[in-house]
Design the sequence.
């Protein structure tokens, strides 16, 4: 299967589940929340949702085009990706997903979705600390160490210019 089809499949399966399926279950089945209609907060919620989708899709594309891999660890990029949004923040995919989830919580005025976002973020942060960063350090060595020192994990900071 081509790299771009695998990227599409994994994007639908993983971020799609996190940002569409589980939030839908939360607001329709587990902790029902009615859509309050199109007010100011719902319109405002479209901003983080749209930005999050754009950041996520751009990051997935960069992983495929530059890194020659996908967002799942079993099909990870073969090259360290330090271009595009990755020049400013180490985890733009996760930042994009967080923006989508926060927008959905605002759209539905759902504390349950906000709680889900917090739990998701804690789990992702633990995954990054325990698995992802040590793995990338062992795989890419000094290149990753320099990148890690220069670019923040969650908040955009200085721009990374690879040596």
Sequence:
């Amino acid at each position: 299967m081509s790299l771009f089809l695998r990227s599409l499949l994994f994007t639908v399966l993983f971020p799609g589940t996190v940002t569409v399926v589980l939030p839908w279950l939360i607001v329709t089945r587990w902790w029902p929340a009615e859509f309050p209609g199109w007010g100011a907060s719902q319109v405002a919620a479209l901003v983080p949702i749209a930005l999050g989708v754009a950041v996520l899709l751009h990051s997935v594309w960069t992983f495929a085009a530059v890194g020659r891999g996908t967002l799942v660890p079993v099909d990870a990029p073969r090259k360290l990706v330090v271009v595009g949004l990755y020049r400013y923040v180490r985890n733009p995919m996760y930042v994009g997903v967080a923006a989508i989830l926060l927008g959905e919580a605002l759209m539905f005025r759902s504390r349950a979705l906000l709680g889900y976002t917090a739990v998701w973020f804690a789990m992702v942060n633990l995954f990054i600390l325990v698995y992802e960063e040590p793995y990338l350090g062992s795989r890419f060595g000094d290149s990753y160490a320099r990148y890690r020192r220069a670019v923040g994990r969650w908040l955009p900071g200085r721009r990374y210019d690879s040596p």
